[in-house]
Design goal:
Length: 250
């Protein structure tokens, strides 16, 4: 059975994530970066401005150089992508997996830019960027979500370990900067978790529409810090001593 991009990035231990993602693009091996033509393979998406999206190599020949990154996506459908760059490769992966959410974020950036009166970024744009770069989406029952909100790490990761392993708690890495960090995981890696009840799991439509109608991500309080390496199976030596590191699990 062929896995979708979304299935490939759902609850994947960090040491396995790269080898599962690279072959998505025309059989590219794990030692090479896909070219933009590979990233565009089977990518047939339009944005909120009804522009056909494509990944274009960021060099001196990049079209519409006078536009900013988000403006270029919205007005021209051009996703500027640096060659041989992990950060931009993972950004492409997330575009493949969640085009609706990425398009909604892009559209909101444009809304904010249109309201902007000076060069200072708005709080809304900073919040969107935080989720876009460092966000994860967690699907769980209300009790589990409260444990995350209240930073009850011992109960969440030790007592509820089997819930993670049985996939009763589902987590999807959305932020492309996190994937880059997964290449060399380190104590201190923390995501910003958007917490959702399982009833909302069926489609990214709920999140994209929520973003666009201002019912999701109105303030930073809607996201909770989540120490990723505490997730069962996501790091070595996860014994009880590991979880007593209060500099990480705080």
């Amino acid at each position: 059975m062929t896995l979708s991009v979304e299935q490939r990035i759902m609850y994947q231990p960090v040491e396995h994530i790269i080898t599962k993602l690279m072959p998505l693009f025309r059989g590219i091996d794990t030692e090479k970066f896909p070219l933009t033509k590979d990233l565009n393979f089977n990518f047939n998406q339009i944005n909120c401005n009804q522009k056909t999206l494509s990944f274009v190599c960021q060099n001196m020949q990049l079209p519409s150089m006078h536009l900013g990154y988000e403006e270029r996506i919205f007005h021209k459908g051009i996703i500027a992508t640096r060659k041989n760059n992990w950060h931009d490769f993972f950004n492409a992966v997330v575009w493949h997996a969640f085009p609706q959410i990425k398009s909604a974020i892009n559209s909101l950036h444009i809304d904010e830019l249109n309201k902007q009166k000076n060069s200072i970024r708005s709080r809304k744009r900073d919040l969107l960027t935080l989720f876009d770069e460092s966000g994860v989406i967690v699907f769980a029952n209300d009790y589990i979500l409260e444990l995350i909100k209240k930073h009850k790490w011992q109960e969440l990761f030790i007592e509820k370990k089997q819930d993670w392993l049985n996939n009763n708690i589902k987590i999807i890495t959305f932020g492309h900067a996190l994937y880059e960090k997964y290449l060399n995981p380190y104590i201190g890696m923390t995501a910003q978790a958007l917490l959702l009840n399982p009833m909302k799991e069926s489609s990214s439509t709920f999140i994209s529409e929520g973003l666009l109608n201002n019912s999701i991500l109105q303030s930073k309080s809607e996201m909770s810090p989540l120490p990723l390496l505490g997730i069962p199976g996501w790091y070595k030596n996860q014994n009880n001593v590991f979880y007593t590191n209060q500099r990480y699990f705080r």
